[in-house]
Amino acid sequence: MKTIVRTCTSAFLAAMALVSCQKQQLSPEEQFVNDLMQKMTLAEKIGQTNLLPAPTNIFTGISEQSQDMFNQIREGKVGSILNIKGADAIREYQRIAVEESRLGIPILFGLDVIHGYQTEFPIPLAVSCAWDTVGVKLSAQIAAREASTDGIAWTYSPMVDICRDARWGRIAEGNGEDPWLSGLLGAAYVKGWQGDDLSDPQTLMACLKHYALYGAAESGRDYNTTDMSENRMFNEYLLPYQMCVEAGVGSVMTSFNDINGTPATANKWLQDDLLRKQWKFDGFVVTDYGAIREMKAHGLGDDDVVTERALNATVDMDMCSELYITQLEKLLAEKRITEKQIDDACRRVLQAKYRLGLFDDPYRYNDGERGKTELFKAENREAARQITASTFVLLKNDTIAAHYPLLPLPKRGRIALIGPMANNQSQLRGCWSVPSDHTQYSTIFEVMKQRLEGKAEVRYAEGCHYSYDPVLEQRFLWTEAPSPRSHKELLDEALATARWADVVVAILGEAKEMTGEAASMCNIEMQASQHDLLEALVKTGKPVVLLLANGRPMVLKWEQENIPAILDVWFPGSEAGDAICDVLFGDKAPQGHLTTTFPQHVGQVPIYYNHKNTGRPIGENDYGKFTSGYLDVTNAPLYPFGYGLTYTTFKMSDIRLSSSTLTANSSLTASVTLTNTGKREGTTIVQLYTRDLAASVTRPVQELKGFKHVTLQPGESQEVSFEVNAEMLKFYNAQLQYVCEPGDFDLMIGLDCRDVKHAAFALK
Ligand code: BGC
Predict the structure, then answer these.
(1) According to the 3-state scheme, what is the secondary structure of 549-612?
(2) 214 lines ligand 1 (CB under 6 A)
(3) E strand or H helix at 672, and its extent?
(4) pLDDT tens figures, 319-339
(5) Which of 288, 316, 568, 578 is catalytic?
(6) 52, 240, 246, 340: which could join 183 in a potential S-S bond, CB 3.0 to 4.6 Å?
(7) Is the pTM higher than 0.85?
(8) 34 Cβ contact partners less than 8 Å away, ≥ 6 residues apart
């Protein structure tokens, strides 16, 4: 074998490399990559910048899949491949690269391992509602351990696009609307995917996406334009990307959108100035799927022009446009780009492969034997079950009879479990479940029956179609077939089941493909077919629990007014059945808090808690002529950021401050006493917010600055303290300097962003 792999792993050459590095003071990585690049032709260097989709049944974008990929690999024209699964299949591609191409450079295999591989975790928006960096990290570690057995070494996560518009389907993939919380969780994903050592064969290289501002797409329509002031960018949107870079993310993906007139993929300022020079990112930048080609539709020019623009923006890898591979040589011959630019891109890709250890062993991420025991193993599933239960948000829990709230349900009597997702293996996985085989999953109905055997009787009814409109329903189900049964037949059966039961548990909301990529919606209420079913169930007079399955904040005004208990379970993943039963029947209590605002009307979006005050503010529940509100709907959200109930209640004292002033070098402590006033143990999230009351630029009415999980027994009290310092009060001023300005501040502590206590302090 004439491969670099074997040559470079020999102890002799390694020692020689070390000696020569010491001479020129190059790191072993630099020396290795330099030596390799000296042997490469221009075409081979360009080949390293080419990322292609494998001809499989995993589709994550529009492209013509190459039928001749093996030959392209042999010719050194493919650097990386995405969308392939299976240890044997990946091994064969790799074998061809290392044994049959001239230099034997290993291929980097990537896949969207976003919220699990075979063990499926909830969608990221759900996971964010646990506000738990430890859980996030663990979920990524487990998914990395599973995916790496197949040969995957690179995942396209974390996604930290801030989104304030529930119409955008990709809100499901992010961490909610707060930039700091999103950055904390994003950094935890990076640590979970990558571990401490990128070459560890049980970790993956992470890819931060979508850089940048993709979540601010106009009108919530996917891929749409973003036009944003620098003030807003720096104060409200860029922080999570920066925090992931600081956490050491190995690669970054450009976004599809146009930003202030330049598509992100052609934006030199974003990639070179901000990301590399200012934030010191030293990995490689890949485009999103076909994003270079799409710049033609954006209106930048032909193939040659858009390719030149992308390379000039220091984009290193072309995902699925096949334009670097076809255009760069010509552009170089025409002297429109330099060889150094191609070298830089190639070098950064090779560095990544070096860091992943692929040159030491191209099969290090390909361990089918480990896969046999690792994939979907009991320990992974148990962790997923715990994490999943912690993401559920209790939105409402009315007291129905004898002073008992409806939830948790007793494990006795007759339960009607209703809804098309209740006995379905696939739908509750969520939008990025491309890798998982759902035939191994249990349904909620199966788990519930088994868990309640001998104690309670459970009957299931499908209930309704996802929509009355068959065209829409097919879009919602994408590749799956809708129920063959009529609306009437489904409804009659559901009502008969409800009448038989003591309590109705309806799982309704969104099908899997109603959120995620290219899944923007103008109507974010329950589809009429589901609403009508719910209304009919309520009319039976039986108590109804709504388990809400969703990937976005939905408009639930009718549900809030008419359904006694609503538990948001999002898209819970492979352990849906157990996690839902754990919480529904009270073995665990819900403890999630919303990271995204639920509007009362779609006309309110974009709606977010950390908005500016305007010059004509109005109370959230008020109306006033000549004030900043609507004639027909108040400004109040249906459920605010930070909101989440549990099976007990809490009381919070007023805030105590250790000092009412703060200087640049001092800190103060803000404390409250929290008491569990209910009858059960419970966990809640105590949240700290501040507001800068007067500054050189306008500032938000609230900004999250800290949070703590607190678990209390009935009657127990605990002091909860937060340290506040000047660093936490910094923002970007009109000159984009990161400063804190002396003046008065409002400090707030509460269990959601609206229900807060206040205290005043000043920064001197
Ligand atoms: C998505 C990315 C994804 C990529 C690769 C694109 O369509 O926007 O989030 O990582 O495909 O599958």
Answers:
(1) ECCCCCECHHHHHHCCEEEECCCCCCCHHHHHHHHHCCCCCCCCCCCCCECCCHHHCCCCCCCC
(2) no
(3) strand 667-676
(4) 999 999 999 999 999 999 999
(5) 288
(6) 240
(7) yes
(8) 26
